[in-house]
Design goal:
It contains twelve helices and 15 strands. The protein is α/β, with parallel strands linked by helices. Residues 15-334 form the Enoyl reductase (ER) domain. InterPro entries: ADH-like_N (IPR013154), Chloroplast_QOR (IPR052733), ER (IPR020843), GroES-like_sf (IPR011032), NAD(P)-bd_dom_sf (IPR036291). It comes from Ceratocystis fimbriata CBS 114723.
Length: 338
């Protein structure tokens, strides 16, 4: 086997990830060590915001190690393994636990003991694009919904993005009533994937619309999942439409200083000083083997329909530019190899 591979690499430097990416046709193969579960030939990778957030904070990139290859989610085939649970040629879904020096935007990646890796039935060969998205976004969606009994009512803000589309369908598969929040252009999509009701945030004040839903249905929400964190009032007034023991789940964390300050206020300011009256929970992790396994099962069971925007191998920078617009519906994937 060759000791080199092709890989997109971020060597460091000022500016954005996409402006600094370099395609290396002779990058060294990721090493097999005692902590490595398997080396995987990548077929498809999914792009996630954490890919660029981790690299565009200079100390983050240096801690990971330069040059680094971005990407945490992929579907591929095992080319070498240190575990009897896998065999060469197995189709596997992989989700790195954290951004890694040996990410998935390459011909080969590795899964270590801290990463999630699950074997996928060969029937999955017809759903490679969807299976590539079974990591960060889907795991986050499943974590955000965990612990709810069947029949619970859930509000998902930012329902048309990668995590939101997964969340709506995973919630319906679990037997929840789902109210999705999106823009006008995505209302029909939300109805198609099973949302029981849709709130178009472009048509007026979001908090007012949520309260109107509760008044009309006579039922408060058991959980609120906020994938965008664009409306602080949605949290501060949650006591008006979220049950007393309900959780308000914030997904992810933008890196802007202003956001960090607002997040601190949400989590630390007590209600008697103007803070929120419902429990805020911020999800920074994105699930482990169990969530990855369940995500692949949902795909193979036909319960997940993902709008997908696909880019060719040489178009990775363009893929990240599209992701950063915040206007992407569903997921963006990179076709790495066949």
């Amino acid at each position: 086997m060759s000791t080199t591979m092709f890989a997109w690499q971020f060597p460091g430097g000022k500016g954005t990830l996409e402006d600094n990416l370099v395609f290396n046709s002779a990058a060294p193969l990721p090493p097999m060590t005692k902590d490595t579960v398997a080396r995987i030939k990548v077929l498809r990778m999914a792009l996630n915001p954490i890919d660029y957030k981790a690299t565009e904070v200079s100390i983050g990139a240096r801690l990971i190690g330069l040059p680094l290859t971005p990407g945490m989610d992929c579907i591929g085939r095992v080319s070498e393994t240190n575990t009897p649970n896998l065999a060469v040629g197995d189709l596997v879904a992989v989700k790195h636990a954290t951004p890694s020096k040996y990410g998935v935007a390459a011909e080969y990646t590795i899964a270590t003991k801290k990463d999630a890796i699950v074997k996928v039935d060969e029937a999955g060969i017809s759903a490679l694009d969807e299976l590539a998205c079974s990591g960060v976004a889907s795991g986050t969606a499943l974590v955000s919904l965990a612990g709810l009994p069947q029949g619970s009512k859930v509000l998902i803000n930012g329902a048309s993005g990668g995590t939101g589309v997964w969340g709506v369908q995973a919630a319906k598969a679990a037997g929840y009533e789902v109210v999705a929040v999106c823009s006008s252009r995505n209302v029909d999509l939300m109805k198609t994937i099973g949302a029981d009701d849709v709130i178009d945030y472009t048509k007026g004040d979001l908090v007012t619309a949520v309260k109107e839903n509760v008044a009309r249905t006579g039922r408060q929400f058991d959980r609120i999942v906020d994938n965008v964190s664009s409306s602080p009032q949605l949290y501060y007034r949650a006591h008006e439409y979220l049950v007393p023991k309900g959780k308000f789940m914030f997904v992810g964390a933008p890196m802007e200083a202003s956001f960090i300050w607002k997040a601190l206020m949400i989590h630390l300011l007590p209600a008697f000083l103007g803070g929120g009256r419902r429990k805020p929970v911020r999800i920074l992790g994105n699930g482990e083997d169990a969530e990855l396994k369940r995500s692949t099962e949902l795909v193979l069971e036909g319960k997940i329909t993902l709008p997908i925007q696909k880019f060719a191998l040489h178009q990775l920078p363009e893929g990240y530019r599209a992701l950063k617009t915040g206007r992407t519906v569903g997921k963006i994937i990179l076709h790495v190899s066949d």
